[in-house]
Every structure is written in C-alpha cells, then in structure tokens.
UniProtKB/TrEMBL annotation:
Coiled coil: none annotated. InterPro entries: Nicotian_synth, SAM-dependent_MTases_sf. The keyword Glycosyltransferase does not apply. GO terms for molecular function: nicotianamine synthase activity. It comes from Arabis nemorensis. It catalyses: 3 S-adenosyl-L-methionine = nicotianamine + 3 S-methyl-5'-thioadenosine + 3 H(+). This is Nicotianamine synthase. One of its GO terms (biological process) is phloem transport.
Length: 321
C-alpha cells in the first residue's frame, strides 16, 4: 500500500496485516498484544490525517480493520461477561467489573456522556434505550449505577446469547435487575415503542460501514419521539481506524447539538443530536421529569483529564435542514 507514506499509517497497516492473519480473534496473549498496540498507535489526536481522503487501498484496509476490531471487541466482552456471570451465587458480578480491561474507560465515557447530556436536556430521562448493548452493557450499567439512579434502561441487541450473558450480569443486583430490560431484536425491526424513550444511544459498532450506519440512523429518526435525544459514538483522526465516523450529514431530521472529540484514552467521540419537532423542556409525550441539577460544563474536562490539561475538542452546531 504505497499510496500512504505517513509513518503512523504504515504502522497501522503493518498491525492490520498481522491481525488479519490471526486464526482467532478470541482473547489470547497474542491477540491482546496486537490490539493493545493498535489502540496505542491510534490514540494520538495531534495529527492532520483525514482517513476519508486516503487512497482506496487504505480505505478498504480501514473498513476491514473496523470489522476485525468489532469482532474482537465482541469476543472480549463475551469472555469477561462469561467469567463474571459464573461467579458464586452469593457474589454480585457488578462488584467485580474492574477485571474488564477497559472498565476505567467506560467510567470516563459514562461520566462524559452524562455531563454532556445535562447540557442539552432540562429533565432527567425516565427511559433510555441503548441499541447494540452487547454481552457487557457497560454504558447502561455505568449510567444506571453512578449517574441516573431512577432511570430505566432498555437494552437492544440482535444476539440472544449476548442478551443472556448481559442479563446474568445484573440479575443478582437488587437495583439494576429491576431497571435493566433486554430486548433481542434487530433495531431495524423495532418500530413501535421507540417513541417512548427520552434518550436513545446508538453503539459505535451498530452499522459497521457508512451505509449501514445511516440506515440505522434513518430508522431511528422515523420512530423516535420529536424532541428525544440521540447519542452516538463516532471517531476522530487516527481513531477512525478503529471505529466508524458519524458525520453531520448523516443526521437528517435531527438537530446536531455537539460533537465531542476526547484526546485522552477515551477512544470514541460523542455525538449528540435531538429529533426535530420537539422541545428540550419536556420528556416524550409531553411529560415532565425531575430537573437536572445545574452542571458547569467547564468542569467536565478537568474531571476527564487527571493531569489537569486541556483535553478536548468540542464543536457546536445548529439545526440540520
């Protein structure tokens, strides 16, 4: 792939070549090492690299790499969810989530998404949907445990085995077992009921390519309630070799509120949009929930960066026609 001369991109291509030759992407010393190196290589954001402007060979490699990352991530979550779910009956799996290698990243991402959500809605959501929750629904768990103690979370996944593992994680918790509900379905088949959620999360790996991602967003736009919030995961700079990018042009029918690009070890960018036609002053169906406590956005980034340096890129947008 001589069309890309950037040294870092060459390193990513080399790692892709090694990863694509693995017999299995299930957790192992070799798999963990290669993906660890890949993530470390893709973390720097002080680069002007735009993956969308690279040559066809590199674009094809990136598409394949994102799929490999998604497959490996699924195996990793399945592995640790199985371990946690097999703990003795007197142990709560949620007390041992720290064994998952990226748990701290989810804690940071959950705090970030909660803080950003409070900037764009006046009331605490009563019902949240997470589409593509997987065998280890850490975003729902983190938000439910630490930030939204009275909110019900509906988790959607196409894989029944993933939902079985996820349900096992929360079944022994006296609180979350009542507030975490699991639905086995393809989101494109989910129509009735999507208008009951104040907030809908769309996982990064739902829609592994642009066409599938846009199709999922268009479906949600048709069936979400006016004024409901859509939160998506995207990627920026070299991190776009790991996850798909969500562009503002993909969000027709939504008001794009914020795109946040972390520059620490939280890999995903966060995109927040609101379904056009509603108000942020009330919940779905015009109901009013509890007020969020005032949140000082300037403090968010200090919390997210333990070295106290500026570690963010935020873009604010108006409505998309």
């Amino acid at each position: 792939m001589a069309c890309e001369n950037n040294l870092v991109v060459k390193q990513i291509i080399d790692l892709y070549d090694q990863i694509s030759k693995l017999e299995s992407l299930k957790p192992s010393k070799n798999v963990d090492t290669l993906f660890g190196q890949l993530v470390s290589t893709c973390l720097p954001t002080d680069t002007n690299i735009d993956v969308t402007k690279m040559c066809g060979e590199v674009k094809d490699m990136r598409s394949n790499l994102i799929k490999l990352c998604g497959e490996a991530e699924g195996y990793l979550e399945q592995h640790f969810s199985t371990i946690l779910g097999s703990l003795q009956e007197d142990q709560n799996p949620l007390d041992h989530l720290h064994i998952f290698p990226y748990y701290n990243n989810y804690l940071k991402l959950g705090k970030l998404e909660f803080d950003l959500l409070t900037q764009h809605t006046s009331h605490v959501p009563t019902k949240i949907a997470f589409v593509g929750s997987g065998p280890m629904p850490l975003t729902s768990i983190v938000l439910a445990k630490f930030h939204l103690p009275n909110t019900t979370f509906h988790n959607f996944d196409i894989d029944s085995h993933a939902n079985t593992l996820a349900s096992s994680l929360v079944s022994r918790d006296p609180d979350l077992s009542k507030r975490m509900i699991f639905h086995t379905t393809d989101v494109l088949n989910a129509k009735e009921g999507l208008d009951q959620y104040d907030v809908v999360f769309l996982a990064a790996l739902v829609g592994m390519d642009k066409e599938a991602k846009v199709k999922a967003i268009e479906h949600l736009e048709k069936h979400m309630a006016p004024g409901a919030v859509l939160m998506l995961r995207s990627a920026h700079a070299l991190r776009a070799f790991l996850y798909p990018i969500v562009d503002s042009s993909d969000l027709k029918g939504f008001q794009l509120l914020t795109i946040y690009h972390p520059t620490d070890d939280v890999v995903n960018s966060v995109v927040i949009a609101r379904k056009l036609g509603g108000s942020n002053m009330t919940g779905v169906n015009g109901t009013r929930g509890c007020m969020f406590q005032p949140c000082n956005c300037s403090k968010i980034h200090a919390i997210m960066n333990n070295r106290g340096k500026k570690k963010n890129m935020i873009e604010e947008f108006s409505a998309i026609e």
